[in-house]
Structures are given as structure tokens and as C-alpha cells.
Design goal:
alpha/beta; Glutaconate Coenzyme A-transferase; globular
């Protein structure tokens, strides 16, 4: 089955207001930028996003956030976005904080049909005991908090029960995809992308390179096409770097090799 669609706009055309989105990426790495931009243009609002973070200021999911399209986010990190903090603390947005590994496993569980699982992460903290602020009012008062979760003991150790996450749509970005929807992610862009793709009832993949079925060998497939419903080719344009850290370039004229001396191999 050929799952390729003509454009990102066509790929997200049926995302309805109030939809739940599982979105791949970590910071700005591996984020489906083109699909997010198309969704901004499409106009759906009241969205719930499930992602590691909700954009970096006005980039990635931040474009939907700044446009007032996101009602709630389920994330593990929200510290990189000042607008999210403002909306959260003034009662305009709900935030469900989840430990990063737990968030990944909740998405994986949703994609594999496991309704819930036990994990030691969060035992003895507000994660298990409840009380993490989810929603504030306009005056900054907490009006909704997380509920206590079931804790059980196995082999002398306590574990907290976490429930699976699924979404109406999964949005992911891959380096390579074929017409059947098999995807390959480049290095660290494999972060939350396979998990978001598994958890979506309808999963849409933007790919940098499209190949024909059979060109991706089975052992290279990171997300099988059975999880993917639509593929759109976007190329490599528009990718951003979250933080660029450099060091001063060494003046090569000062090195022993440049001066004609024998350099010590390392």
C-alpha cells in the first residue's frame, strides 16, 4: 500500500479541534517541524500534546503554543519555554508532568496494547502520592492537582502503577521512509519518535528521504510500517539547532607541525 501523501497540509487536514497528539522529538532534535507548521496553518485548536517537551519558546510545538492552540500538555520537561510557564501559571493551560522514562514507557505501552505497568520511578514522591499542580486559576491558585497512584510491593520493593498513553494522531520525523511507511531515524532523532508513532491511532511521518519498498532492510527499520498511516516527503530544510556551543579556533600557526617541528602523535 502506497502511504505517501502530496503535502504536509494534506497529511494533517483531518486533525480535528480537541485532538490528542503524540509528537516525537527531544528539544528541537527529530521534531516533525513541517507537520506542526501545517497544523498551525490548518487551524485546529484545543489540542492536547504528549511530548518530551512542548517546544523551545516559539519553535517546534512552541508555534502552536504561542498561537493558543494547545489546551494541555503531557510532558517530562517544560523549563525551556517561558510562554508555557506563563500560560500554566495563569490558568490558561494544563500541564501533566511525567518522569521522562515513564513517559516513554507509557507511550510504548499504549502502542503495544498494555493498559498499565508498575515502575519504581516516583515511589515516595509527589509522582506517586499526588499533589503536583495540573491547573491554576487566573490568580495563580492551584485548582487541580495530580491524584495519588496505586503502589504495590514486589519482591520487597515498591512500585507505582502508571497507565498507558494513546493519541488520536502521532506526528513523527524520520530520516528515511519507504512507501509502505517503514521508517529509519537518524541517531538521536530516534528519541521519542518511534514511541509517538506507536501510540498514535493515525500516525503521520514526515521523512527527509523517500525510498522504494525493499530498499530499507528489515534490520534497519526502527518503526515498522504497520504503525504508520501517512508519509510526506519534506527534505532537510528548516531544521534548527537548539543550542550552539563552540570554542575559539586554535591558531594553527602556533602548532609544532606548522612551525616545521615534529608533532607528537596522539
Amino acid at each position: 500500500m502506497d502511504k505517501v501523501v502530496a503535502s504536509a497540509r494534506e497529511a494533517v487536514a483531518d486533525v480535528a479541534p480537541g485532538s490528542v497528539l503524540a509528537v516525537g522529538g527531544f528539544g528541537l532534535c527529530g521534531v516533525p517541524i513541517q507537520l506542526i507548521d501545517a497544523l498551525l496553518e490548518q487551524g485546529a485548536d484545543g489540542l492536547t500534546t504528549i511530548s518530551n517537551n512542548c517546544g523551545v519558546d516559539d519553535q517546534a510545538l512552541g508555534v502552536l503554543l504561542y498561537a493558543g492552540r494547545i489546551r494541555k500538555t503531557i510532558s517530562s520537561f517544560v523549563g525551556g519555554n517561558k510562554e508555557l510557564a506563563r500560560l500554566y501559571l495563569t490558568g490558561q493551560m494544563e500541564v501533566e508532568l511525567t518522569p521522562q522514562g515513564t513517559l516513554a514507557e507509557r507511550l510504548r505501552a499504549g502502542g503495544t496494547g498494555i493498559p498499565a505497568f508498575y515502575t519504581p520511578t516516583g515511589v515516595g514522591t509527589l509522582v506517586a502520592d499526588g499533589g503536583i499542580p495540573i491547573r491554576y486559576d487566573a490568580e495563580g491558585n492551584v485548582v487541580e492537582t495530580s491524584r495519588p497512584k496505586e503502589v504495590r510491593e514486589f519482591d520487597g520493593q515498591q512500585y507505582v502503577l502508571e497507565t498507558a498513553l494513546t493519541a488520536d494522531f502521532g506526528l513523527v520525523r524520520a530520516a528515511v521512509g519507504d512507501r509502505h511507511g517503514n521508517l529509519v531515524f537518524h541517531e538521536s532523532a530516534a528519541n521519542f519518535n518511534p514511541l509517538a508513532g506507536m501510540a498514535g491511532r493515525v500516525t503521520i511521518a514526515e521523512v527527509e528521504e523517500l525510498v522504494e519498498p525493499g530498499e530499507i532492510t528489515p534490520e534497519r527499520v526502527h518503526l515498522p510500517g504497520v504503525f504508520v498511516d501517512r508519509v510526506v516527503v519534506v527534505g532537510t530544510e528548516g531544521k534548527s539547532i537548539e543550542k550552539r556551543t563552540t570554542r575559539p579556533r586554535t591558531d594553527r600557526s602556533d602548532t609544532p607541525a606548522a612551525a616545521g617541528e615534529e608533532a607528537t602523535p596522539r
